[in-house]
């Protein structure tokens, strides 16, 4: 299958090795893409584990999994990568009522022992 992150590659050659922990995403953009794919699959555990340990208390595996399941994840667009640890993106999805939605966010990431983690995001219009 084509990778849900819209890289144009197959899932096996793109985000799957990150989801199975064979590899770790080398950049914040790669992590961001793999997290979008993890909503599409969905894989709440991966979303939880790639959240910065200090921020995990604001999320739960169950709610991340459910958010992935109830929406239909159609497209990811990377808008900008203004620095090593920031990614601006638009995530397109159809909500449970069938309405098309766009989630536009500037996310901040950080590395801990050479692994990238999602810290937080600012929602944009
Ligand atoms: Zn991918």
Automatic annotation (TrEMBL):
Record-linked Pfam families: YchJ_M-like (PF17775)
SUPFAM superfamilies linked: NTF2-like
Residue ranges occupied by any YchJ-like middle NTF2-like domain in the UniProt entry: 27-121
Listed InterPro entries: NTF2-like_dom_sf, YchJ-like_M
Protein name from the UniProt record: Preprotein translocase subunit SecA
């Amino acid at each position: 299958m084509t990778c849900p992150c819209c890289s144009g590659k197959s899932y096996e050659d793109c985000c799957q090795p990150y989801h199975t922990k064979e590899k770790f995403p080398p950049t914040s953009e790669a992590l961001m893409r793999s997290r979008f794919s993890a909503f599409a699959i969905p894989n709440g555990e991966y979303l939880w584990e790639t959240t910065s340990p200090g921020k995990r208390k604001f999320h739960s595996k169950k709610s991340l999994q459910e958010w992935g399941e109830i929406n239909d994840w159609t497209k990811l667009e990377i808008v900008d990568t203004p620095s090593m640890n920031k990614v601006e993106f638009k995530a397109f999805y159809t909500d449970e009522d069938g309405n098309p939605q766009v989630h536009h966010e500037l996310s901040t990431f950080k590395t801990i022992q050479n692994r990238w983690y999602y810290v937080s995001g600012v929602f944009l219009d």
